[in-house]
Amino acid sequence: MKIEVKSKKGLSTILSVVVDKKTIQLKINERLSELQKEVTLKGFRPGKVPPSVIKSQFGKSIYGEVIDKVLRETSSKAITDKKLKVAGQPKIDLKQFGEGKDLNYELLINCLPNIKLNSLENIKANEYKIKIEKKIIEDKLKELANQNKQFEEKKENEKSIIGDQVTFDYSASVDGNKFEGNEGKGVQIELGKNLFLKGFDEQLVGVKKGDTKIVNAVLPANHPKKELANKDTKFQCKISNIKKSIKSKIDDNFAKIMGAKDISDLKRLIEKQISSQYSQALHSITKKEILDQIEKIHDVELPKNLVEQEIALMTKNIKTEDKDKHKSNNEKLAKSRIKLGLLLNEFGEKNNLIVTDEEVRSEIQKQIKGMPGQEKMVLDYYKNNPNASQSLKGSLYEEKIIDLIKSKIKINTKEIDTIEAEKVISNFNKPNIDKVQISKTKSSNKDKIKSKKISKK
């Protein structure tokens, strides 16, 4: 096998590879020997078909199979021998092939650039520590109490009002006809939330325990049975119980219902979750600040094919007219992503950073603990999606690199409250195509606290 660098221009390299005909013939003979044990032909005993007979019948397909294998093996060896870092899939251009001939081909390779990392000593960044005000925690406690109402039975003849919990059995019909799934037992709704069907709740206002009430409603447009979609439906409801809501007392007992040890523990968990949500947003801002500076102090020649692939990935679900409209910005963003990816990977390789399988498993366990009651769903997700674990590993690797960079630059740590945090996040989120939006407002942050159980991460 002969390997020569035919041309080298920028990041593009063309290798000329020649595999002599004797090597090809040896591979063909080896394959014929293998097939002799496998092929069964009429008139010959199993395993006794002469190679010449096999070749006469399957010669072309055997040659093609051998050449495919030789191309894979020799192209890989050629790249390794020349110590090339390949960007994307190389292209093969066959120049000469055929039985009894040398195999001659060219390997067109886009290479990764050689990257020289510059000093980070002049890079500065702000890092934020968030302090959650007591009022926000108290407001969240009240919100949780309101979302987790307690109910007690009303007096026997007391009528229902908005806010009451009504329990009933029903039998429904469309145009006087019953249908599959037309009955329900022990249905509970809180009047005023309108979670059953539009207009259903208000028709149950004023009922008493033991009453039978006819409720008219329209089945939803997305009903699983298309013939029932948007149909006027009559519900005969038998009221079995009515309860009125009572204000939840925010005490240790309420805290235990919410999954905490006591009220102090519940407050601590609320503070931790709100803090975590703000911290994630603020961490992304710090990271962007660092990466912008790293990109600025490095000049890197980018493989054209990687940029094209990134643009295609970014715009795969975008209309053609929108692609054309933002073509320049898309190319700029793609180049930025590729450049930063190459730079971060170089930081990782130079410092021998790795992410172990144990670290990936540990991170998955953290996610499981943060989603009580959904443990199986998380495990099944990673089990059934191998790419998800690989993506998680990539994220952990990137975070290791960022942590390493932070240890080498000047970090200014600021302690801020939620009002200041909102300003920082808002300023960062001002429209800019080069920024990934962090849509975190004070209300949206607080709304993400679980209303049923507080997870203990």
* Strand runs, count: 11
Helix content: 40-55%
The mean pLDDT is 88
Secondary-structure element pattern, one letter each: EEHHEEEHEEEHEEHHHHHHHHEHH
Helix segment tally: 14
Termini distance?
59 Å
Helix/sheet category: alpha+beta
Largest sheet entry: 5 strands, antiparallel
Overall morphology: extended
Second rung of CATH, namely the architecture of the largest domain? Orthogonal Bundle
Uncertain parts: 433-457
Whole-angstrom Rg: 34 Å
CATH superfamily of the largest domain: Trigger factor, C-terminal domain
What's the CATH topology label of the largest domain?
Trigger factor, domain 2
Return the domain count.
3
What do you see in this structure?
- The chain is α+β, with helices and mostly antiparallel strands.
- It has three domains: 2-110, Trigger factor ribosome-binding domain (Alpha-Beta Plaits), CATH 3.30.70; 124-134 and 254-447, Trigger factor, domain 2; 150-246, Roll (Chitinase A, domain 3), CATH 3.10.50.
- Helix content is 46%, strand content 19%.
- The chain has helices spanning 21-38, 51-81, 134-147, 200-203, 252-257, 263-296, 304-314, 320-325, 327-350, 357-369, 375-384, 386-406, 418-428, 442-447; strands spanning 2-9, 12-19, 91-96, 103-110, 124-131, 150-153, 165-173, 183-190, 212-218, 232-246, 410-417.
- The longest helix has 34 residues, at 263-296.
- Mean pLDDT is 88; it is low at 433-457.
